[in-house]
Amino acid sequence: MTIPQYRASLFWASCFVAFATLILIGAGGLVTSHNVGMSVPDWPTTYGYNMFFFPWSKMVGGILMEHSHRLIASGVGFLTIFLAIFITIKEKRSWIKKLAWLAVLLVVLQGVLGGLRVVWMKDEIGIFHACLAQSFLVLMSLLPLFFSRTWLDFSLEKPIAKSTFTLTAITLGLIFLQLILGAIMRHEHADLAITDFPLAYGQVIPNLDEARLNQINERRLQIQGLQPTDRFQIHLQLGHRGIAGLIFLGVISCWISLFRERNFLRKWATLWLCLVILQIALGAWTIWSNKAADVATGHVIVGSLIFVTGSLLLALLWRARVLARIQVENSVPIELASSIV
Question: Do 331 and 320 form a contact (C-beta atoms < 8 A)?
Fold first, then answer.
């Protein structure tokens, strides 16, 4: 059985595409934060021009943001195809080749969803578009991990507890649910349904009877210059805050568990915890700044990094458990166990 070898070309090429994908998500976040998603009303053309030959002189304001997003997306699409071909030629592990071509399928689907969002003018498609973008980013971030020395030379002195793996998986599930709620809030324009933090209209759980809701909307319109909100949007944001609290507790618990293990995984857990703390601060700043576009976009990017970091950590925990089982069941050294998975 051939033991996989570290190839710097595969590692750095996949890192580059993963970074380009993060930039693409940031560009998409700017489009949504500035509410310029329909600045270019046609697709796949741009005001009748071929997308790649649209005049630079016309790229101003919202058109600049939206069209730049399309160009970056096209670039990521081409890079994903080239990477899949490169992996197919250079890589021996068949399951990684399949993941590379799955990435191609996802990036094509993502492009079609983005186009349909424009053509059909449906916010619901934008929600699926945003969630698929996060999933695609995770897949593109896992590829460099699978090519890394960390993955190929993986070794721990003792097995990881099953409870740590389970807790990490549950926390990661909550993060993805949080990303879905965030996408719904952004595309339904409900991300400022509550205008104060840490309280909600001066209360932990606000009173939302008809009289109080009318009072809230009157204040939003006359003093804050915001559109009226409703119970659903307020409850949606309350749910977003509540899940954020659960994620914080979950990540802290994972950090404590892995910190006791005294291995390199605690560095990943520490990074995860720091990102979550930063994300909470950015969430509060988004509200206090009346949803300043750059702050809100930063909130989106850090949310993506939290999802990626948790996914990479979970993959490493899975590898630790699988290698430990193979070593025990087959009495093989870690190097041979590494070649099996």
Answer: no
How many residues comprise the chain?
Answer: 341
Range list of H helices, the chain: 8-33, 61-90, 94-120, 123-147, 149-152, 162-187, 210-222, 231-261, 265-288, 293-330, 334-340
Reported as a single tens digit per residue, the pLDDT across 52-78 is 999 988 888 889 999 999 999 999 999
Q: Which of 286, 276, 308 is nearest to 25 (CA)?
A: 308
Asked if residue 229 lies in contact with residue 193, where contact means CB atoms within 8 angstroms, the answer is yes
Whole-number Å distance between alpha carbons of 222 and 299 = 28
Span between the terminal Cα atoms of the chain, in Å:
12
Q: Confirm if 103 and 136 have CB atoms less than 8 A apart.
A: yes
Those residues with Cβ within 8 angstroms of residue 139's Cβ, 6 or more apart along the chain or in another chain: 99, 102, 103, 106
Sign of the torsion formed by the C-alpha atoms of 3, 12, 105 and 311: positive
Closest C-alpha among 263, 244, 308 to residue 164: 263
For 105-154, the pLDDT digits (tens) are 999 999 999 988 888 878 788 888 999 999 999 999 999 999 999 999 88
CB atoms within 10 A of CB 98: 13
Cα distance between residue 107 and residue 279, in whole Å: 27
